[in-house]
Amino acid sequence: MRQISFETIVSNVKDMCILANHYLSNDMCSALEEAVEKEKSELGKKILNQLQENLEIADKEQIPICQDTGMAVFFVEVGQEAHIDGGLLTDAINEGVRKGYTEGYLRKSVVGDPIERINTKDNTPAVIHYDIVAGDKIKITLAPKGFGSENMSRVFMLKPADGIEGVKEAILTAVKDAGPNACPPMVVGVGIGGTFEKSALMAKQALTREFSARPTIPWVKDLEDEMLEKINKLGIGPGGLGGSTTALAVNINTYATHIAGLPVAINICCHVNRHITREL
Ligand code: SF4
Fold first, then answer.
1. Domain ranges of the chain
2. Whose CA is nearest to atom 7 of ligand 1?
3. 88 in Cβ contact with 5 (< 8 Å)
């Protein structure tokens, strides 16, 4: 068994919270740069340039990219030969979030109860998804999720007979309904198959995938390309003010499903598609 200390997890998660809220990943930065070149509308270009400028200011002045620093969502791969020394992994992650959001002066956006709505004042608890894997390492991916775009996400329980055309329609419906509310240009995460909750989880995880890591299943790759093209013809554009850049990417994950169903989940993220990964 390899020992990983509770404190190592806390300090890494703390740093990850601060970094993810100040810098976008390289693939997101490149996608925004490419979008400026390709955008057909002058106003759209102007808004994309402002988004670039916003990234530069965040870097230079060490302020968050967006005021909504999100709810901290984690995907954690735990090697079954790894052991946390000194406490529970969930407690370590939440302590890291507490320190990151407090010491990094990030907005605290979490209420402890969905109806009573009292702010927990430290952005905990995080939403944590665990996967047990081979090996003795722990791989932590953090994706702080803003709720402007989260609120526009959807799950469709399609019938098998709806087929791939039904899936396309569901994705386009979700994006059209989101419109300017999702702070476009967006990244569209899609989960097809599994069950109700599995499809939603796949859609969320798809948002953390590098744009260059394309699917190995040919029809999924084709569907990503087709949907990106169709979404960018909707005319929603940067900031929702019109243009040819409504989405920067469509990332699709799939899984086996039941003979009687075809779940499709669409998790929309804004242009602030934050994610960071560390392996400990
Ligand atoms: S949806 Fe994204 S860009 Fe819009 S306010 Fe929320 S985090 Fe910021």
1. 2-20+65-145, 148-273
2. 146
3. no
